């Protein structure tokens, strides 16, 4: 009598993860907002609910994820590792859901621009990974609209914009429906020569910055206002500024000991291998600049997929500052 082959064994399922999806969403919101109040607003829950959820997540993972600082909350080393992987996990899950629901969906073309050139330091390379993770989303960089992304968004010349300081007009002012969401943040760090008098300091104070000079790239008035407000609050001290149009000039001026350079972590990282420059943080904690994603409501589906992928794409320099 012929043997009936046994059915194939089901795939092995490992131990159930302790962390839950809401834990991943929470740490990403906290990282982007930099405070429990900001995360509460983004997640549409109360600040106390954010604090409870964070305590529960830390209990589940068995490690402290965020430290409270004078400026809000800052991720610990364990928190940074979780933040780095959380966006990718959520992006893969969301994309799997879309694959199951619409396996033969057509390719969608998205024109994307960044308000600040610093994002272009990593975004083109990240697009290679994005294309693999989002095979039916064609992303095109519209760099020519960097100088005024909001106006381009209103006109329909682009579909999605990554913003730092620009504000969106109301739907009535724009003549179309625009949406914005918090996305991630980059850290503004301070780069000095190894021969600088402050080189031996573990961190820098506001008084150190007041003494200047500060070496900066050319920035828009809105970016300059954000920096002064984020660092000095309502105070507006007079600071000697050295402005250069090129990043290389900013870095070389810092290397020459002419002052303290202020750069995005994304940009600073490329110049730290020579051993003649150091990266410092403020003593009050990391200075994070929030980024938002804005898009036309007609592009919501594509933007949602892009949000999930971008959350885990931005590089980090946290562990190298100090």
UniProtKB/TrEMBL annotation:
Residue ranges of every copy of the HTH lysR-type domain listed in the record: 19-76
GO MF annotations, alphabetized: DNA-binding transcription factor activity; transcription cis-regulatory region binding
Keywords: DNA-binding, Transcription, Transcription regulation
Pfam families given in the database record: HTH_1 (PF00126), LysR_substrate (PF03466)
Keyword Oxidoreductase: no
The organism's place on the tree of life at top rank: Bacteria
Gene3D superfamilies: Periplasmic binding protein-like II, Winged helix-like DNA-binding domain superfamily/Winged helix DNA-binding domain
Family annotation (SUPFAM superfamilies): Periplasmic binding protein-like II (SSF53850), Winged helix' DNA-binding domain (SSF46785)
Family membership: Belongs to the LysR transcriptional regulatory family.
Protein name: LysR-family transcriptional regulator
Lineage: Bacteria, Pseudomonadati, Myxococcota, Polyangia, Polyangiales
